Every structure is written in C-alpha cells, then in structure tokens.
User: Fold 3-phosphoshikimate 1-carboxyvinyltransferase from Methylomusa anaerophila.
Amino acid sequence: MNNIIEIKPVKGLVGTISIPGDKSVSHRSVMLAGLSETPVTITNFLHAQDCWSTINCMRALGVLVEQDNSGVLTVQGKGLHNLSEPDNILDAGNSGTTLRLLTGILAAQPFFSVLTGDSSLRRRPMSRVISPLTIMGCKIIGRSQSRYAPVAISPAEKVSGIEYDTPVASAQIKSAIMLASLFANSPSTITEPSISRDHTERMMATFGITVTRSGSSVTVQPAQKLAAPQKLYVPGDISSAAFWLVAASIIPHSQLTLTNVGINPTRTGILDVLVRMGADIAVINEHRSGEEPVADIHVRSSQLKGVEIEPEIIPRLIDEIPILAVAALFAEGKTVVRGAEELRVKESDRLAAITTELSKMGANIQETPDGFSIVGPQRITMASCDSHHDHRMAMAAAIAGAAGNGVKISNAECVSISYPSFFKIIDEISVNPLS
Ligand SMILES: O=C(O)C1=C[C@@H](OP(=O)(O)O)[C@@H](O)[C@H](O)C1
Ligand SMILES: C=C(OP(=O)(O)O)C(=O)O
Assistant:
C-alpha cells in the first residue's frame, strides 16, 4: 500500500486536541499486566499499530486481552511463571520497543521463542539487548552474528542479576534488562550515560516491584509475584503533542489547547527547547495520573529563534528531532543539533531522511554525522516527499507542508504506527486552508 496524502498550506490552527495515549506507557502496561495474576483495566491505551503488535505478542504467550467499545483494555495476565510457549514466530511489526522489551521477558522463560519484525525493524541493532542479557546467562542468538532480528531465545539454565553500564542512554536497553531481572537470582543495576525515559521504573513500582534510583543508576529486585493495580491510566503522548506544539508555534494565527499531555521530566526536552526558542507555551492544570505527571498545554504562534541543542538533552527529546528540524526552518538564526547519532538507527535513518525530504522542499540543511544545522527562516516550496515508512517523518513533513506551501507525502499511512488520527485532526483544526 502506498497512500499519498496531500497537505495544503493553512492560515492557522485553532482548537482543542485530546492527545492520544503514550506509546511507551501503553506497551509497558500490557507487558506488566500480562505478568500479573489479577485483571488490570487500562484506560487511554494507545490503539495504534505498534501497541497492537505488543498486544498480539502477549496474546500469543497466553495472556487474555479484551477491549470494550470505548477502547478500554482488560488484561488477564498469566503471572510471572506461567506464560506459554508461542506456537509461532512472534511479530513485533515496526516496533523496536515491542521487540527489545519482549526479548527481556522471553529471555528468562523456560521455553523457546523467536521474535522478528518488519524490514525496518530487522535492520535495527539488537546486539544492544542481546549482549547484556547474555551476560546474565540468557541464551539468545540473532541474525548476522546476533546483530539483528530475527532473534531466537532458548531457556536459560540460570538468570543472574547484572551490574551494567549501557553505552547509550536507551530506555529499551534498560527496560529489557529490568524485565529479565524480575526472574533473576539477584538484583540488577543499570547505569546510563544520562537518564532515558523512566516509565518502566515508575510502572514497576505500581506493580509492587522494588526499584531504586541513585543518580543515573537504577536497581531492580527480582520478584516472586506482581501486585497489580486494578486500574491503569495512560497519559497522553508528548511525542504526539510535539507535532502540534511546533505546528501552532510556526503557523501564524494559531492557538491550540492540548489536553492530557504526559509531562514526565524524562520526556519534556521538547518543551524546554521550544521555550528557549521563544515559543508561547503555557503548561496548566498539572496533576498526577498514577505514577505519571500530566497537564494541559496552551500554545500560540510566535517568532521562534534558532538554538543549540546539545547532546545532554537528546535522550529527553529523542523522537522529537524530526519535528524540531521543521521548527528550525521557521526560526530566525541558526539551530544546531549535536549528539543525535541514535537517530540513524530508528525506523529510518532519521538524520538522512530529514535532510533528504526537507531539501526536496528547497530547504538548506547541513547534515552532520550526529545531527544537523539549519539557518532560518527559510522559504520552503511545495514538494512531493516520502515518509521513508517512518511515522515521525510523515508527520514532520505534513507540518512543514501546512506551514509552508503544501506537500504530497507518499507512504503516509505509516502514521498509524503511533498516531492513527493525525491527518483527520489536521483537517479539523485547520483554519481557511489556502489553495
Ligand atoms: O522505551 C521506549 O518506549 C522508547 C525508547 C526510545 O528508544 P531507545 O531506547 O532506543 O532510545 C524511543 O526512541 C522509542 O520511541 C520508545
Ligand atoms: C523510535 C520509535 O519507536 P520504536 O523504537 O519503539 O520503534 C518511535 O516511536 O519514534
């Protein structure tokens, strides 16, 4: 399927958007509920393709997952020690989080399993989880000297805790180790170069697991049984909200209210950077939703200015860099991104994809090995772009087109990976599309 979507330039974006559930939290909610013995209802679960990959894998392991008419899930787990051997290969689709976190769970099970994914996921590095899990005693091999999926997992004789310094700040590496550690014979401590998103830590605490943090290290104790909460509530995804935060900032006459946005400090780098760029953003109605902080956000158009985005903040805005590149095109002065080499191993090589696609609109971008620099503001023209089958690229191109002179995006259907209603919402909030 190749859906070509045309986005027209718009005069302004006005309205209120209820931000759909957080993808990271949604994955973790079904995995941990699946390892519990009592039923858990999950409200505001993200019904997008990546999270359904997780549901389908958990179902194949014997977990019962049902949804009601309003999308609320009920998960009846199997407990820590009663998952069943899947009778086929597990398919993580396009989802790195599904594949890497499930590798952590499956590495500690007394049965054989194989995990794979689509052609994009099969190009992404898996040795980063296979290596530490192997040190723990797990038996995992993958394609091409265990660099890539498919990965095949055999029962381990013994799973031991680990003290592990991760070379990259990655919540997927950290979470895979934490999940395997639940089954280990001793605690594990993972130390990151800087703290990646901490949703696993927070949600594990909700399930009665002992997790302690000291600086950039996190220690998780093995568990006998999880004490599941009856209800979980998934906050809105700030990575989805980011597209509207940038769109409303750069499109004149815009005024948006984004409701129910997760503002976990390990995810709010985008807010910090946009505020430094001069964005008109107000965070209101802050409250807690379970272990996660949530708020509403008002955003209005403003003239942004270029900023330096240094390596230290990258883990807190890792998925927002494609849309930040669009913000930089409309900002006055130079924006530089450094230390973002991880973008080369996402759904696409996002640094190359940003440069290629925005250049088609006439943008001038200097790509570097670990980022890019852009001097703005730049006039961009109507162009035919490609998503590279990468949801965040499709949405970033759409906002560039709406703010600029329109865009046609091929392979645009991939927005369903994280934000199925994205194009419908652009239509709903657009004021007087200009033709
Ligand atoms: O743990 C998670 O839910 C995620 C972690 C990040 O990946 P890395 O752990 O590879 O940085 C992020 O890019 C991804 O979208 C979701
Ligand atoms: C990188 C992403 O997700 P994942 O790693 O789970 O595929 C993303 O959503 O931008």
Summary: Residues 24, 96-97, 170-172, 175, 196-197, 318-319, 342 surround shikimate-3-phosphate (ligand 1) (CB under 6 Å). The chain has a mean pLDDT of 97.
